[in-house]
Amino acid sequence: MNFEINHEKSPKEEVKRFYDFQMQRHLESYDLDLDDLQDKEILDVAAGDDLVFPISATMAGIDNVYSIEPKRLFPPVTEFSTPEQPNSYQEELNELRANIPPQILAKTQEKHVRAKVENLPFKDESFDLIVSRCAMPIIFFPENKEIAHKAMDEILRVLKKNGEVRFFPLQKEVFLGNEIPKKFLDLKKHTDEQAELSVELLDKLQKANKIKYEIKTVNESEIFYDPDIGGIGSPEKGIPVKFIEKVVIITKI
Ligand SMILES: C[S@@+](CC[C@H](N)C(=O)[O-])C[C@H]1O[C@@H](n2cnc3c(N)ncnc32)[C@H](O)[C@@H]1O
Questions:
Q1: How many other C-beta atoms can be found within 10 angstroms of the C-beta atom of residue 176?
Q2: Is the pLDDT of residue 173 over 80?
Q3: Engineered SS bond to 159: which of 24, 29, 104, 163, CB 3.0-4.6 Å?
Q4: What is the model's pTM?
Q5: What is the mean pLDDT of residues 55-78?
Q6: Across 176-191, average pLDDT
Q7: Is the shortest distance between the CB of 75 and ligand 1 below 6 Å?
Q8: Is 90 exceeded by the pLDDT of residue 176?
Q9: Ligand 1 pocket mutation, candidates 69, 144, 194, criterion most atoms within 8 A of CB
């Protein structure tokens, strides 16, 4: 993440800045404006154990943001970070979370349910908008096809007619370098396969007149993959990779 706490500012200011930053990031991912969220019943599927989007939206004055996530919320930083192996992102997140206004936290948690996408604890046609970030493989990737289909059925069941689902990202990587390590090619094969299978399921639902959908590119960026560190490296050492991230927009017919 590109957010660093400014320790010279008050915790209150930094909490606001962090969640404003996150809200902007999520809106860009979903290709939405803040106004698109007003007066809607919204569900965040696989919201993460830190509820970043529901908290950001509640702070931005958006009510009615429900969320589901199977994991226990707000794990202590000790689960991720030790003095030998610090996890600075998690440490910063925990530091910020301690300063969220209690009424915001209470409002967000009130609308949170510990649950899985394949079994949603909501009535039919409850939501106008369902969002999910960085969880498409969970919903679609049919290592267990039955669960993938059940998950989509459940999402469409709790969505109102003409309601929208926005999944981010449907991802593609394009390698621009010559010597690409096999490990990375295997990873690409995996994400390509995920994207293909997601589209296959969406086509099937569209043919059955249950949905219509479109796929829109919302981010294109270039990174340098350094096989030695197994992550993002410097332009001098890394292999150039173009990331194309798309949002899938589904409308229930
Ligand atoms: C990569 S995280 C994304 C979290 C959050 N949406 C974000 O953007 O930071 C994927 C999340 O999916 C959750 N998950 C895994 N299996 C799930 C399931 N069957 N139903 C719902 N969520 C699931 C995981 O617990 C994890 O928090």
A1: 12
A2: no
A3: 163
A4: 0.92
A5: 93
A6: 76
A7: no
A8: no
A9: 69
Query: What is the Cα Rg of the chain in Å?
Result: 19
Count of CB atoms situated within 10 Å of the CB of 250:
24
How is 156-173 classified by DSSP, letter by letter?
Answer: HHHEEEEEEEEEEEEEEE
Q: Determine how β-strand 231-232 pairs with β-strand 211-226.
A: antiparallel
Residue recorded with tokens 């030790």: 82
Cα separation, 74 vs 72, whole angstroms = 7
User: CB of 52 closer than 6 A to ligand 1?
Assistant: yes
Please state the atom number of ligand 1 nearest to the C-alpha of residue 50. 9
Residue whose tokens read 């001098």: 236
Between 58-67, 195-204, 210-219, 234-243, the lowest mean confidence (pLDDT) is in 234-243
Phi, psi of 212 (to 5 degrees): -125, 150
Instruction: Give the mutation target among 19, 23, 134 for probing the ligand 1 site: most ligand atoms within 8 A of CB.
Output: 134
Tokens 């908290």, residue? 55
CA of 177 to the centre of ligand 1 (A): 32
**CA atoms within 13 Å, Cβ hemisphere of 77:** 17
Give the CA dihedral 69, 73, 76, 77, nearest 10 degrees.
Answer: 50
Q: Residue 138 above 80 pLDDT?
A: no
Q: Which residue's entry shows tokens 């498409």?
A: 136
What token pair was written down for 148? Answer: 């993938």
Cα dist from 103 to 47, 55, 99, whole Å? 19, 11, 11
Q: From residue 250, how far is each of 67, 116, 201, 205, 213 by CA, in Å?
A: 19, 20, 12, 10, 4
Is 138 a pocket residue for ligand 1 (Cβ < 6 Å)? yes
The DSSP output letter for 109 is H
